[in-house]
Design a protein that fits this description.
five-stranded mixed beta sheet, about 40% helix, globular, 11 helices, single chain, DHS-like_NAD/FAD-binding_dom, alpha/beta, SIR2-like domain-containing protein
Length: about 300
């Protein structure tokens, strides 16, 4: 998020008048040390400036995503998430649900590289139209195919609104197709208003359903800063004592508050420490250092689990 803040600061060109006034408030907040979402929240941003922020955000993230795609095509990238999927599929379960606030397609690439079906709520094809994820069933022979369903609650790099207001998902390159508007909810910019629109509403409703039914959670790099996303998760853990694993380089204050007040009894949280990994659980609510491995990193965590 810090790199994106720098990119937006340097690349969004506000026009004179209301745009400049509003963007000056954002830049001042960033200079004062606010993280990007806090800097963008509760600012009177003109719609024209929001369009520029969305477009610039797409440009920044699409560069890295397209580079990752090219690397994946050449099999130069090993996806730790693929290893996690493979381990989780060593069961009778045929579907893994991923709820993500990210726009990138790492989860999709990881699923593809493992030979699994991925589904993001759109029909298959080149010109993909929205369809509820539960309406599609994939089979390999007589058996259900192992499928990774990705609930992208803040949109995706390959989701667009066409000139007629229609919603579609398209194979993408590093450049934005002419006439299309990216369907991504950028940090702090009309987040809660846009999530009432399609396809975000369907993605959030689907995410709520799977979170409400989950029997375990793995949270990777999640900051617990999206109040419209994780209430179902918190209820499952706090009321129903569903086990949860939380891993991040640095746990946010919101994540630590969740662990303290809503994680229930069966939680394990890992974050970086200079001497190894800081571990939090019911017996060590203030954390204890485990020396040696950086187990908050997914490759080391997969190895520790035995995946």
């Amino acid at each position: 998020m810090g790199d994106l803040a720098v990119w937006l600061r340097d690349n969004v060109q506000a026009d004179d008048g209301p745009e400049v006034d509003a963007w000056t408030l954002v830049r001042t907040a960033l200079a004062a040390g606010d993280h990007l979402e806090a800097a963008l929240e509760n600012k009177p941003l003109p719609d024209s400036l929001v369009v520029k922020i969305v477009r610039s955000t797409w440009d920044f993230i699409a560069q890295g995503d397209y580079s990752l795609l090219k690397s994946a095509i050449k099999t130069e990238t090993i996806f730790p998430l693929r290893t996690l999927f493979t381990g989780l599929f060593r069961s009778t379960n045929r579907n893994i649900h991923v709820v993500t606030t990210n726009y990138d397609r790492v989860a999709e690439y990881a699923a593809d590289s493992g030979g699994y079906i991925h589904h993001t709520g759109f029909l298959p094809g080149y010109l993909r139209r929205a369809d509820g994820a539960e309406n599609l069933i994939f089979k390999q022979g007589a058996n259900l195919a192992r499928t990774v369903t990705v609930w992208k609650v803040h949109g995706s790099l390959d989701w667009f609104s066409d000139p007629h207001g229609g919603v579609m998902s398209l194979p993408m390159t590093s450049e934005l197709p002419d006439g299309l508007v990216p369907l991504i909810v950028t940090p702090g910019v009309s987040k809660y208003q846009r999530t009432h629109d399609e396809p975000f509403r369907s993605a959030i409703q689907g995410a709520d359903r799977v979170l409400s039914a989950a029997t375990a959670f793995i949270c990777i790099g999640y900051g617990f800063r999206d109040g419209h996303i994780h209430p179902k998760l918190m209820t499952r853990c706090h009321v129903h004592d569903v086990p949860i694993l939380v891993v991040a380089r640095t746990l946010t204050p919101e994540a630590k508050d969740f662990l303290k007040n809503n994680a229930g009894r069966h939680y394990l949280a890992l974050e970086n420490h200079d001497d190894g990994t800081m571990v939090y659980n019911r017996d060590n609510p203030d954390g204890i250092v485990v020396t040696g491995g950086k187990y908050w990193e997914l490759p080391a965590l997969n190895e520790l689990i035995g995946f």
